[in-house]
Amino acid sequence: MARLHAALLLAALVLPALAGADADPAVAALRGDPSLKVRTQAAIVLGQRGSPEAVRALRRAVAEDPAAAVRLAAVSALGRLEATRARPTLQAAALADPDPAVRAAAARALAALGPVTLTVEVAGGPSGARLSEALSRQLSERGMALAANGELRLQPKVNVEVGDGGGRTTFEAHGSLVVVDGDGRLDLLESQARASVAGLVPDSRRGAYVITVVEAVARGLGDDLAARLGRR
What is the pTM of this model? Predict the structure, then answer.
């Protein structure tokens, strides 16, 4: 009777997939069916679809399902879908899943995804465009992939203060970078740079020093981001 029940459930999952029907039955089965075979088949079925709901269910299975066979099927399904949004889940599985087959499959799926793609948004303010341009250049020089619709959205910001005092002109730039991933999670990086020049710098030359400190901020943010991505 148990085998008949599983067979009927498998048919219910596979036939809607072939017909392009809604993914809800497979999602429900993957999340809660007591049969290991049914959950594994549900992951395979969801790997034939690219809906956000399917990807969410597969990610949850990779992170939470107690059966290695189900986690392996879910990892393989995400790899088949080339679901870049699942990169954090695959990275966690590649590093920490207790089953070596799951870890190996997650590593293969990550390799197939390729590098993380980044989108640098244009910062506001007088020096914002300069910072965004400099940051894009810094990231490109580090071999990072820039795209119009990247996996990570980078939102830079910079404020430059110029002061005269004590016979010197100082230029201080304070920059920040908000990193937003596909799940809407935020990370914040900060960098600052300062230049002090003897004498009072005339207005006609101040722009060059502003560029210098903004470029330095971009280098700092680029270094910090590279380090963060190296740990992702």
Answer: 0.76
pLDDT digits (tens, 9 = 90+) for 61-106: 999 999 999 999 999 999 999 989 999 999 999 999 999 999 999 9
Residues 220 and 131 in one domain: yes
Instruction: Round to whole Å and give the CA distance between 166 and 172.
Output: 16
Please give the Cα distance from 153 to 214 (Å, whole number). 20
Residue pair 4/35 in contact (Cβ under 8 Å)? The answer is no
Q: Are 73 and 121 members of one domain?
A: no
Give the integer Cα–Cα distance in Å for 206 and 93: 51
**209-230 tens-digit pLDDT:** 999 999 999 999 999 999 988 7
Return the DSSP state at 34.
Answer: S
Domain count, the chain: 2
- In whole angstroms, what is the distance from residue 154 CA to residue 40 CA? 37
Cβ–Cβ < 8 Å for 101, 116: no
